[in-house]
Amino acid sequence: MPDTADTAVKKPSGRMEAAMTTARGAANDALHETRKAAQRVGKAAEANPLAVVAGGIAIGLAAGVLLPRTKRETALLGPVGKRINSAAAGAAEAAKDAAKAELGAFPLSKQAARAQVSKLLDQVGAAMSAGGEAALAAREEAPAPKPVKRTRRKAD
Q1: What is the pLDDT of residue 86?
Q2: CA 12/CA 132 separation, integer angstroms
Q3: What's the pTM?
């Protein structure tokens, strides 16, 4: 039986499955790194809530930079990007609320706040960089999809 567009859609080739598996692995790695960053943000929120507000802004910017750009990336990684954005927005909102509640609880020097923000931004940057590198590595490792042989259907 010849390979038609219909059968190709129903049964992906081995190369396509490998590409999808690689992309899923990279997306899971990026999600794992983001979760680790969120845990670090939670610990930092207890130590310095003002730094968390700045970190939430940084996470939002970094997530915006990492959003998929091509149609293929959007199809493969779009749902993960949405989950990351959703989690980052929720974390930023929670951090902002915690910061507002804690601001009056203890005095904060300008230098201490800068040091905390710098440390937090370094951690967030490292986590986002690792996630981006994993996604790029998956894209480079994934084989190009095999063209589908299309056949014309005869009119009845």
Answers
A1: 76
A2: 27
A3: 0.28
d(CA 29, CA 84): 12
Report the candidate in 40, 42, 28, 39 with the shortest Cα–Cα distance to residue 130: 28
**Dihedral in degrees, nearest 10, Cα atoms 26, 133, 30, 123:** 160
Place of tokens 């059968």: 7
Query: Residue 34: pLDDT above 80?
Result: yes
Query: Which tokens belong to 156?
Result: 């009845």
- Cα angle 148, 149, 153 (rounded to 5 degrees) comes to 120
DSSP three-state, residue 21: helix
Neighbouring CB atoms inside 10 A of 42's CB total 14
* pLDDT level of residue 9 (50, 70, 90 thresholds): low
